[in-house]
Amino acid sequence: MNANLKMNADTQPLLDVVHARKSFTKGDGGELLVNEIAPRVHNSGHWTQDGCEVDQFEQHIRAICGLPLADTTLLRPAAMVNLLEDLWANGEPQWASALEDDNVHLHLYGKAEARPGRKMGHLTVLAQDGVDAARRAVAARDRLTACPTPVH
Known about the structure:
Number of strands: 5
Oligomer: single chain
Strand order of the largest sheet: 3-5-4
Distance between the termini: 47 Å
Structural class: alpha+beta
Number of helices: 5
C-alpha cells in the first residue's frame, strides 16, 4: 500500500476520530462495559475480511482518503477465533485439520516468533447462523492441536 496518501482538509479530521471500541454487555440487564478503545481498526473486526462485502481495512482507507464508503453488507453469519502462541507449543499447528471444513478461513499475521500471549493469526468461519459459526470456529481451533492420525 502506498503510505503517501493524499490528505486534504476534509479527510484530516478523520484521522483524529477513527477508532475501534471493544465492549461487552453484562448479564441480562445489558449493562455496556467498554474494555478497550483502539485508534485503528481492531482485531475483533477481522472477521469482516471474509464475512462482509467490504472489510474494515478497505472501509478505513476509503474514509481517511475521502472516498465514498462501500457496501459492508454481511455475506453470511461469521465467527472468529484468535490463534495465540500456545498453539505452537508442540510444533507447527495442524493446519490441514482445521481447514477440513470449507467454511474455515485461515489468516496468519506473519509473525516470526510465538511469544506468550501473542496473537499469531485468526480463523474465521462462515455458517448459516452465528451459533453454528461459533461452534465450528472453536472446533477448528481445537483441531489445530490435535495429534494427527498416523497414515498406515
